[in-house]
């Protein structure tokens, strides 16, 4: 690969990386023997530019967040304009146009009935807020009816992922969510088996038999049911049947349980619908949004709920919802989120996602026949290869960098979720790199 000239000298790179290795935590890696980190100097469009000179085609959108590519002029301008007025003001007792405009957009775009918006700092926090809303709602309902509060637990499905904070972690898959380590401190909830019927397969109501039984047997204890709609992401890039989600809505209605849908990964077009709930034509009672809300510029999340939930909470003993982060409604984040949503709607996102899906169906799906592969699947702009063995992260990452792409596999999964502006040629380069590493034994564990 041709290396570009960069502004960070090799000796500066070495000393930065040495400090990083010794003192800086990175996600999901050991502090004593960390996986390597690559030093980035800049990023532009679909490219991540390493300080060592390699220019990489980004297949990850920086964990589903960078929707329109890096360093986008419209998003940069929105940030600069907002910064020239104010970057942040407290949201207690103060409000501003950027937050108001954003909430207006979110209410208009999300499924019907979600009319009240709570802005927060990150996806995990938006899940904490959703869970707290559900619990506070049930508290207020019991108080109003003058009955004992029994609805204090959550119901979810295995293979789920909802974030790394404690309430969110308590509804993550019990194995991959590290429930063993935190068993004594995590809230105990109910888990149904993960959906098994895949998106596009023949539906059978058998898939919700155990879930229905859990609702029937425990509904008096259950405040809310939480699920990632259509795509179980971190739990294995599993695309499940929309009828499953429809059945969840029906069960929640039948048993007076709130439906929380975590659209943090799937929102804003990723699955081919603006929100994945639309595949099942349902509206949840509470929705969580995050990741690409700001086009990948700044952390921001939102939890939307129905007017009924908001009013019930407000009529309860506390007379308000008990949450209020310092950076709630951050003006810079809201301004760039407004610009990102405008860009998404202007850019004909459906055509962008369909284009990516068609190319991946043509090129990535055939890798299903590779001897190392269990399954290759595509939905919207998400492409996943499930391998028989775990990947050797350090080695496969090194090879991807040598091949000029940025793809970060985990477990048995090599997946891509590129920025929507990616060209067919760049997608071909991503898939070719995946096909190349599949042939290399040392990229996989034994
Ligand atoms: N829910 C889902 C479905 C996610 O994919 C993630 C992030 N991977 C989260 C919640 C947590 O979001 P954050 O990392 O912003 O806290």
Structural features, described:
Helix content is 36%, strand content 15%. The protein folds into 2 domains: 10-68 and 348-443, Aspartate Aminotransferase, domain 1; 76-346, 3-Layer(aba) Sandwich (Aspartate Aminotransferase, domain 2), CATH 3.40.640.10. The protein is globular, with a radius of gyration of 22 Å. It has helices at 10-23, 61-64, 73-85, 97-109, 123-145, 166-169, 209-218, 242-254, 307-315, 331-346, 349-363, 393-402, 424-438, and strands at residues 40-44, 47-50, 55-58, 116-120, 153-157, 190-192, 222-227, 231-232, 238-239, 258-262, 286-289, 301-305, 373-379, 382-387, 405-406, 413-416. It is of the alpha/beta class and 446 residues long. Strand 5 (153-157), helix 6 (166-169) and strand 6 form a beta-alpha-beta unit. It binds 4'-deoxy-4'-aminopyridoxal-5'-phosphate.
Summed up, the helix count is: 13
Using the 3D structure, state the CATH architecture of the largest domain: 3-Layer(aba) Sandwich
Largest sheet: 7 strands, mixed
Shape: globular
Helix content: 25-40%
Give the strand order, joined by hyphens, for the main sheet.
Answer: 4-12-11-10-7-5-6
Q: Summary?
A:
The protein is an alpha/beta fold. 36% of the residues lie in helices and 15% in strands.
Write the SSE topology.
Elements lengths: L9 H14 L16 E5 L2 E4 L4 E4 L2 H4 L8 H13 L11 H13 L6 E5 L2 H23 L7 E5 L8 H4 L20 E3 L16 H10 L3 E6 L3 E2 L5 E2 L2 H13 L3 E5 L23 E4 L11 E5 L1 H9 L15 H16 L2 H15 L9 E7 L2 E6 L5 H10 L2 E2 L6 E4 L7 H15 L8
Parallel strand pairs: 3-15, 5-6, 5-7, 7-10, 10-11
Antiparallel strand pairs: 1-2, 2-3, 4-12, 8-9, 11-12, 13-14, 14-16
This protein binds 4'-deoxy-4'-aminopyridoxal-5'-phosphate.
4'-deoxy-4'-aminopyridoxal-5'-phosphate binds next to helix 5.
């Amino acid at each position: 690969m041709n290396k570009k000239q960069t502004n960070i000298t090799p000796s500066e790179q070495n000393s930065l990386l040495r400090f990083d290795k010794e003192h800086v935590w990175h996600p999901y890696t050991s502090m004593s023997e960390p996986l390597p980190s690559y030093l980035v100097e800049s990023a532009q469009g679909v490219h991540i530019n390493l300080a060592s000179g390699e220019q990489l085609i980004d297949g990850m959108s920086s964990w589903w967040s960078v929707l329109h590519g890096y360093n986008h002029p419209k998003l940069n301008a929105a940030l600069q304009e907002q910064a020239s007025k104010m970057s942040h003001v407290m949201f207690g007792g103060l409000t501003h146009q950027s937050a108001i405009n954003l909430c207006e957009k979110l209410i208009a775009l999300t499924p019907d009935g979600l009319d009240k918006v709570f802005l927060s700092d990150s996806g995990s926090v938006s899940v904490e807020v959703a869970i707290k809303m559900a619990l506070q709602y049930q508290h207020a309902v019991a108080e109003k009816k003058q009955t004992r509060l029994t609805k204090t637990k959550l119901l979810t499905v295995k293979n789920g992922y909802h974030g790394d904070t404690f309430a969110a972690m308590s509804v993550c898959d019990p194995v991959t969510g590290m429930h063993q380590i935190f068993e004594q401190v995590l809230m105990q909830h109910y888990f149904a088996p993960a959906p098994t019927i895949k998106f596009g397969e023949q539906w059978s109501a058998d898939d919700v038999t155990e879930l229905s039984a859990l609702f029937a047997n425990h509904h008096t204890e259950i405040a809310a049911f939480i699920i990632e709609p259509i795509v179980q992401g971190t739990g294995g890039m599993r695309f499940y049947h929309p009828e499953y989600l429809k059945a969840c809505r029906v069960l929640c209605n039948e048993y007076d349980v709130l439906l929380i849908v975590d659209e943090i990964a799937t929102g804003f077009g990723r699955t081919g619908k603006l929100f994945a709930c639309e595949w099942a034509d349902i509206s949840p009672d509470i929705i969580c949004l995050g990741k690409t809300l700001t086009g990948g510029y700044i952390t921001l999340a939102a939890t939307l709920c129905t007017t009924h939930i908001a009013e019930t909470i407000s009529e309860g003993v506390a007379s308000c919802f008990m949450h209020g982060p310092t950076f709630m409604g951050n003006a810079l984040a809201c301004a760039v989120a407004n610009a990102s949503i405008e860009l998404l709607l202007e850019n004909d996102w459906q055509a962008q996602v369909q284009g990516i899906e068609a190319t991946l169906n043509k090129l990535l799906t055939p890798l299903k026949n590779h001897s190392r592969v269990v399954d290759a699947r595509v939905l919207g702009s998400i492409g996943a290869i499930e391998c028989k063995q775990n990947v050797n992260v350090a080695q496969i990452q090194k090879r991807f960098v040598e091949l000029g792409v940025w793809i970060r596999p985990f477990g048995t999964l090599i997946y891509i979720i590129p920025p929507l502006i990616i060209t067919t040629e760049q997608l071909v380069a991503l898939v070719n790199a995946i096909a190349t590493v599949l042939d290399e034994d040392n990229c996989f564990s034994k």
